[in-house]
Design a protein that fits this description.
GO terms for molecular function: chondroitin 4-sulfotransferase activity. Pfam families: Sulfotransfer_2. InterPro entries: Chst-1-like, Sulfotransferase. Keywords: Signal. Helix 7 packs across helix 13 and helix 11 (237-253) packs antiparallel against helix 12. With 320 residues, this protein is an alpha/beta fold. It folds into two domains: 2-56; 73-310. The protein has helices spanning 2-23, 43-56, 89-103, 106-109, 119-122, 125-131, 152-166, 174-177, 182-197, 206-211, 237-253, 258-271, 281-292, 294-310, and strands at residues 73-77, 82-86, 132-133, 144-150, 228-233. The two termini are 22 Å apart. It has 14 helices and five strands. The protein has a five-stranded mixed β-sheet with strand order 3-1-2-4-5. The chain binds 2-acetamido-2-deoxy-beta-D-glucopyranose (NAG) (6 copies). One 2-acetamido-2-deoxy-beta-D-glucopyranose binds at residues 89-90, 93, 162, 275, 277. One 2-acetamido-2-deoxy-beta-D-glucopyranose binds next to helix 12.
């Protein structure tokens, strides 16, 4: 009994230390799980900690569970033994173009000018089609499998502004016809995710695909998650610049030549701000209202708390 208690406290304090470390995690650290170079914090031990913590709590079953198999798309570059899972729409477009570029023979690429927009038009359809892949989580052809993760609530907020405010302007049915009402969207989404988790819903909506927990993607489960290298996409420009630098380090480690890296870096740095809503006035306003709204925070907790646990991110929710 006492030793159980001590064990639980130990696990909690380890998680606390990691959380504190992660809150400083911005530009410098590389792999998300290797912030602390100490075997106690190895991914195996962390995963174990998570399992123990989850099990020892009287886990509210009302939380949306992690690791429900969901649509997963990947991009690969066999030449560089590199693969990436595409979770977030915005970044995933960039990842696709980047990997297409890596797979495109050099003489082809000289014409290409922009990774983000026009560049796409110069890439060969065939090369880009061949860049797509499925089920790479356990494929040993790729020595590094990347996944870019983001704060779950910030990710929801960004999607909400993009889909349920901007896109809904032109399409009434968007976001379940909720007309910019976040609580309405969250309630609907919470019910849908419960049904999906219970395998009672067979077709997924556009909104499901954008708001599903990150742990549902990438063929993640307790085992495959260990095969990934995580890059954390922050909300500030410095953090995002840091992520891009880490990504360039990965390319460098995999033998991508310097001039290719320089070109990619130039494209990404110059076009980065356009691809983020973090600075927009509307997002700031909606975000402030969201954080003050207890019902919104309750539903976000139910949907995303397990994402915070799985990826060892600092949870913004007060509940335990
Ligand atoms: C887990 O942590 C223990 C120390 O608490 C350490 O001895 C062990 O090597 C770690 N396991 C792994 C797989 O890193
Ligand atoms: C690439 O994929 C698209 C859509 O799946 C298809 O229409 C197109 O024919 C493919 N192009 C090539 C060159 O394989
Ligand atoms: C791994 O990926 C490579 C390249 O996409 C593919 O040719 C191979 O069949 C895959 N292996 C497995 C076991 O799926
Ligand atoms: C590529 O750049 C790195 C640092 O950015 C440098 O250490 C390395 O020497 C360069 N390699 C070549 C072949 O220029
Ligand atoms: C490439 C891409 O999808 N870019 C989008 C990123 O998000 C912003 C705002 O949400 C959109 O305006 C971009 O079109
Ligand atoms: C480096 C750079 O500026 N790349 C591209 C960014 O996106 C614009 C289009 O919006 C392109 O014109 C640039 O070439």
């Amino acid at each position: 009994m006492t030793s159980n208690l001590i064990n639980t406290l130990l696990v909690l304090s380890v998680l606390l230390v990691i959380t504190i470390n992660l809150s400083y995690f911005c530009t410098k650290e590389t792999a998300h799980y290797s912030v602390v170079k100490d075997s106690r914090f190895s991914i195996e031990n962390l995963t174990r900690s998570i399992t123990i913590t989850t099990a020892s709590h009287t886990t509210p079953s009302s939380l949306i569970p992690p690791f429900i198999p969901f649509r997963s798309t990947f991009v690969t570059s066999p030449k560089y033994s590199l693969a990436a899972c595409r979770i977030q729409k915005n970044l995933s477009t960039i990842l696709l173009n980047l990997f297409c570029y890596l797979n495109t023979p050099r003489k082809f690429s000289r014409k290409a000018s922009s990774l983000t927009i026009e560049f796409k038009n110069y890439l060969s359809q065939e090369t880009c089609n061949a860049t797509h892949a499925t089920h790479i989580a356990t494929n040993t052809t790729f020595s590094t499998k990347l996944a870019i993760i983001r704060d779950p609530v910030e990710r929801f907020l960004s999607g909400f502004v993009d889909k349920c405010i901007h896109e809904a302007e032109h399409k009434d049915s968007r976001c379940y016809g909720c007309h910019k009402n976040m609580i309405c969207v969250l309630k609907e989404q919470y019910i849908r995710f419960q049904l999906i988790a219970e395998a009672k819903l067979s077709s997924f909506s556009y909104e499901d695909r954008h708001f599903a927990p990150m742990s549902w993607f990438c063929d993640f489960d307790h085992e495959t998650i260990k095969n990934y290298k995580f890059l954390y996409f922050g909300e500030t420009e410095e953090q995002q610049g840091g992520t891009i630098n880490e990504l360039m380090d990965v390319l460098d480690d995999h033998g991508v030549d310097n001039s290719t890296i320089s070109h990619i870096l130039e494209e990404l740095s110059a076009n980065r701000t356009k691809h983020s809503t973090s600075g927009s006035a509307i997002r700031m306003k909606v975000g402030q209202e969201m954080r003050k709204n207890a019902e919104a925070m309750r539903l976000l907790y139910l949907i995303y708390e397990n994402d915070y646990k799985v990826f060892n991110l600092k949870s913004p929710f007060a509940q335990t």
